[in-house]
Amino acid sequence: MRRMRHTKPNSIRTPSHEGADSGNGLGEARGLRRISGTPTANVSTMMFLILIVWFADSCSKPTPAHQQPDQEGPSQSASIRGDDSERCLQAAKRELGPNAIVLRCGHFTGGTGLEAVAAVRVPGLKDDRNGIPISELKILREYRSRWESGLNVDGEVTNGAGYLGANFIDDAHPYPYYRVDFTDRGAEWGSRTASQFTLILFSMSRDGRPERGDIGLGIGWNGAVGRFQEIEPNGEEFAPEVKAPRHIRSR
After folding, report:
1. 241 and 217 in contact (C-beta within 8 Å)?
2. For residue 126, what pLDDT is reported?
3. pLDDT digits (tens, 9 = 90+) for 172-188
4. Element at 59 (helix H, strand E)
5. In angstroms, rounded to a whole number, what is the distance separating the alpha carbons of residues 82 and 240?
6. In this structure, what are the phi and psi dihedrals at residue 96, rounded to the nearest 5 degrees?
7. Which of 140, 158, 172 is closest to 217 using CA atoms?
8. What's the CA gap between 42 and 29, in Å, rounded?
9. Interatomic CA distance for residues 28 and 203, integer angstroms
């Protein structure tokens, strides 16, 4: 492997918060009040109390308000205009050359600036279950009429702060390319949903062979630090960059 990756983790679940009375047989008992007196008096008194409580509750209930839908995270399939698509393509070709293609164009990070996932496709290879074969990829972000690179994939995966998914770099690795997929295409990455911008990279040889044991590298936008970062396989945490991974040579 050219980089140390995560081994496939066990399923990680967020603990559910069950009620304190769940499963202990006390939930209903705590809702009853014991009333002293004769059995007939008990029943009559209880019925009278139930009617009072029901009447008071029905009078005090407000008219239900319309619930607002949950706010989704930044979308990777945001609607864009035709001229936006052209701007994305122009930026892609300017950064990656005439063979560049645009895989995504929209607003991935919740901002107002246009953003694009640009790539150079590996000729002669078809898409497969791990995605689109690419030799280079950039996430480009438009800022004040200029386009800046938020992520670079060219052999290694980097952003402005360092390397993503790399504890070391094998200079003799035979997997210089990648396949890229997205959660809105059906790819899965932990708890990430189709509405959250998530791309997944799988290492690939020049002839299209996948790297054995590679579970992929998930990448998404971390608004807390303002950049694209590696996402842990559970889909819930971001991993910090490695500024200077050591180099090895396995062959």
Report:
1. no
2. 96
3. 889 999 999 999 999 99
4. helix 39-60
5. 36
6. -120, 0
7. 158
8. 17
9. 56
